[in-house]
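=== Structure Prediction Worksheet ===
Name of assembly: unnamed complex
Input type: mixed (protein and possibly other molecules)
Chain count: three
Listed entries:
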Amino acid sequence: MNVSKTEKTIHHIVLVIVALLFVLPLIWMLVASVDTNAIQSLKIPDELTMENYLSIIQDPAIVRSFGIGLLLSGGQSIIVVIIAVLAAYPLSRYRASYKKPFLYTILFLTSLPITAVIVPVFQLFLLLRFEDNLIAVMFFLIGSALPYAIWMMKNFMDSVPIELEESAWVDGASVATGLRKVVAPLMVPGMFTVLIFTYTGSWGNFFVPFILLSSQDKMPASVTIFQFFGNYGLIQYGRLAAFSVLYTMPVVILYYIAQRYMSAGFSFGGATKG
Amino acid sequence: MKNIGKGSLIIFASTLLLAACGNGNGESTGEDTQNGATSGNGEEVTLDVTWRFAGDPDNIGDYVREFSDWYSDEQDEVVINPDPITASEGDYFSNVSLSLQSADTAPEILSQDTFMISADANAGYLVNLDDLVADWDEWDNFIENIKDGVLGEDGSVYGIPTTTDSRGIWYNKSVFEEAGLPTDWQPESWNDIYEAAEMVRDNTEAIPFSMNLASVNGEAVTMQTFQMLWYGTGETMYDEEAQLWNVNGEGIIESFSFIDEIMNQRNLGPSLSVAINQNYGSVIMQDMFPSGAVAMVLDGSWNMSHFVEGGTAEFDNPEDEIGFAMMPTQDGSGDGFITMAGGWSWVIPENSQHHEESWEAIKAMSTEEWQTRRAMKEGTLTVRQDSAESEEYADRPFVETATEALNYAHFRPKHDLYPNISIFIQNAVEAVATGNMTPEEAAEDYRNNVVDLVGEENTY
Amino acid sequence: MASYAADKKHKRLSDNTKTSIFLSPAFVVLAIFFLVPMVLTIVIAFTNLALTGSQAQQLQFVGFDNFVRMFNDNQLYSSIILTLIFVFFSAILGQCLMGFIIAFMMKGKNSTFRRIIGIAVIAAWVTPEVVVGFAWTIFLGDSGTVNNVLTFLGQYLPFLPQEPVAWLFQYPMVSVVVANIWRGTAFSMMAFQTALDDIPTEVEEAAIMDGASRWKSVWNITIPMVKGTIVTNLLLVTLQTLGVFTLIYTMTGGGPSGSTMTLPVYMYQQAFVSFQLGYGTAISLVLLLIGAIFSLFYIKFLKVKI
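=== Predicted Assembly ===
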């Protein structure tokens, strides 16, 4: 027995309390979304209703924005993962003369907030005639997510021992095959982490599409919920709660799917090497 | 792995398809102005009309669509395309400023807050309307004061006013009765306000006097509160002719003192958790004031839309329950009353196409008939003298007083740095209201901030 | 052996080339959609560009004027301090520490139990920032859940508030820090979970059998074993927290009285409310500088492995 029973019990209790505390702010949202007369306080609804959800789902503009958002963030995050894996490989394995400066610069630039860059980007878009163009917006989102993604991916890759690859090479595999059959499977948890991280980031990004797109019907869900909040925010709590729940759903589902692959956990490299 | 590969390809391909379709749509809704061929061969011209959509009810949208239908009946060459931007006010301005920069994004007709016009004109974003207006006989029918608001820094006309508003003191008649005050109240000095507020405080449970004080409420603090006080002392914020900012005036300290008296010295104001709150506006005007929890509120005339049919705090006979009084000057001297005036105008972006057609459409929307219709629909004040005199317009609750106030209207300084300086005021007001600064300290703070920003040589 | 050595040399020679090939997609995308905007942004910081007004179309280079102005700007200094406070308490002390503690306590427990606790924490992480801001604004409101619970308990426990507390007004920094910790802990938790789980239990048992107290064994054995994770996590979380904007803006708008006006919020106010893009961008460079300092600190002194 390595840890005393008392200690274990304390752990359990504390964790349960922590979990409850974490869930608390969200409970209001779930409860209010089915309440006909939702108010700010957490209360048991007098009357349950699906009306709030229906009014959101039946609004074609909102549904459309959800679709756009899914494709925008989905496409963005998948492409980011692919590019990041490719980029992380040499950064993790090879010695290149410009490796350090490249990584330092990438890291350094991630702290610049999007709001600072957005106006030059808008003007750049005007120049390249990218305005109101969803694909261009997606690529901008890709570009801004890449630094962090590459950094994270490299760390995950660092934890995949090179010996495994080398043994594959000894067995006659090419670098590409080794990458595909040895490294990638072990990277799956890492890739999913980056995927979710990137997806969550762009799914919630309001400012970029708002500025770079001008047609209302090209706006993704992050913009429509923000507008909804601004227009009806503190008056129709129930509808807003329902919208929020629906808006959070895709990321939750994504996480659930990824859970299976991520159950192996993810390591930041060097864990056992200290 | 293979599944992931396939899945990602499919998603990627669909995104491409969608974007391609989306972009195609974008071109056909008139964003890309190439499809609206110009003059000469009778092909249709599409004019994109942009305004700020702020949620239901969509009064402006209804109005524009109504006009669009009527206009299509009247003639064949021009089609009006409603193309609103859904955003908070601040985001609307940013979005608009960016879209005005290029022909591909600028709409043909834009609804712009009158106070932004001079900055936009300086930026070269707007078409100078001087010549067009000179040829237009209807221009004389517009209220003189209001015309002042649409002039650029160079004195030229850059917009056609569509709506305006005034500010004053809303008061709850039931609470006034309970306090023993007259229900047709019109204060004539700041002292009258103090007296009425003290009677409310001593005889009722209601909060006597409320105004916008939180820096998070932005421009409302400067325009509905501070300038209403400051300009009532006979001073102005900016000398347009000499191009100097007022930083040493006594009126500054006195205006801060009013706030200090109400909030701290005489206890006539709301609690800080009510006042310093992002939702101050909606909570006060849609809940606390109509229900009698607050007796007087210094705020804008547009709030009347809450109290009439369709509003969130509807009354059967609004004028029996609620009153709207003009804001007096400090001691009743000068004009006796004062209001800041804002409002919106139609402007023609320089970078848009079809300037001529846009002008024709704007003229059509600015006739007495359509002007009155707009004011009625939106619950705002009309900008035309003749509309203001029409019966059905003047009959609407509170309109008479609100329009009378326009006679004493002042406009905000037309200067590019105004928004920045306004923020100094907002912060100082909040500091005084919360007791963090004395009126003298706040005036000093304002002075220092402005001097730091524009240089001492531009102040007086 | 000779052929292997030759292979090694061959490999090393083309390392640079191979690296270039692998990195090329990243390079291209980054160059156009990241680097060019960055450079433009930095250039703008030396101009007086505005969104509207006479500086909109004819901007001028003003050299270091914006930076000189920053020297005299009191709000800037307080924004820097607020940002540092925010990062210290919400990233370092909050997310990393909490993530570690949670992961530590979860070690060795039943996997279903772990999953349930995990989901609760992660639910906060996956919720979009706008929704988080909005949910917390209501949570902390005058008739929100926190006040409901506190005033209810306050009836029995006199040291608790008897009336609702306007959290966002009286304790704004605390409110946004807590909300941010709530939101981001999951990331650290997941990182530490793996790292800690990788430590074989025999190592800890051995330490205890050697007579080390529980605390000592944690401090001297467990923590050093996950040092790499700790430091990398600190770095990533710090940088991420530096740029937090939407959460603070939706909850407090930077107020009251600028008490939560961190650099990103101040920058937004200058660029999009006052329309002073040049100045706003210059402020964001300060943020960049702080990020660089943190990065260097972590790399040099805590030895994050590149």
